[in-house]
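Entry 14. Structure prediction run on the chain below.
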Amino acid sequence: MEQPQPNPHEISKPSPELRQTSELPFAVEKIPVSEGVDAFKAFVDRYPDYAICPYVAYKDAEGWDKSTSRTYMNQVLPNFLYVPVNIEKNNTDELRRFFELVEDMERVPAVNITQPHKSAPVIREMFIGDANATENVDTLIRGSEGKLVPYDLNAPAFVSWYNDEVGSFEAKTVVLVGVGGVGEPMAKRIAAQHPSQLLLIDPADKADLAATLGEQSTVEYHHSLGEIADAELPEDVIVINAAGKEGATDESGINQLLESRASASGVFVDIRPHLKIEVVEKAKGLGWQAHTGNGMNARNDYALLTGITDNLGVQSPSFEQFEDLVAKAS
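Output returned:
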């Protein structure tokens, strides 16, 4: 599955000073979260002349309030709505109902999928043809034949951002904490860049994934960070927290690792999209080269946006314009 290419054109809307208008009804006020399929359908029926990109997830009220894309994706194109849809974890019937609904809605150019629904078996079954497929899916974009096509945008966005703005994974020791919906495809992309060692940390058993990826690099699976507490990690170790993408706050293991290597020359990345994250600021104070996932997030959603504008036949804002909206919402 190829990642959609950016559209180089620019649009004149929205204006630099965003305001709520009939074309941008949620440029200022946050768009409501639709609780399930019926609520989503009722909401979008109120906007029959708008293109719709659903954002499917399961979060509590605090999690939805922290969602940055809920803001900036509703500021970027006229007559377009980015609609959060809350579907409970493991509610396979509701998830299937949702995708059956949007599959034939031509005014849905794309669907953004996040935890806990990334790469869900029902999504793989419906859009890849095999519930047990190994391809990762976090996005659907309607192609030239009118069908929703599955993509993995998260992992390519992370690796391209890291390579361009931080450095290389080659011949480095990488500790990846959280190997779930976004962490798994990240692990695959990182392993392909031949680190000297890739340590996967997750409470769910990832031994099979480690074995598969071990064909390209030295990959180990550990249940917790405590299992590598006494490991001799190099000064330039790369530590990536992919466990907190949706706002998890239990970072005690991460904190202990950061403190144990204070003033080291290592790199720490927490992939949550905000410009400031407490654990990242702490890492900087300890001497780490530390980053949030804001840069990754902007690239990921710009790829989504260009897929949407290509489908709609409209011009995209420049990446710089889009990145500015992302930063202001973060």
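The first strand starts at residue 34 and ends at 35.
Filed with the rest of this week's runs.
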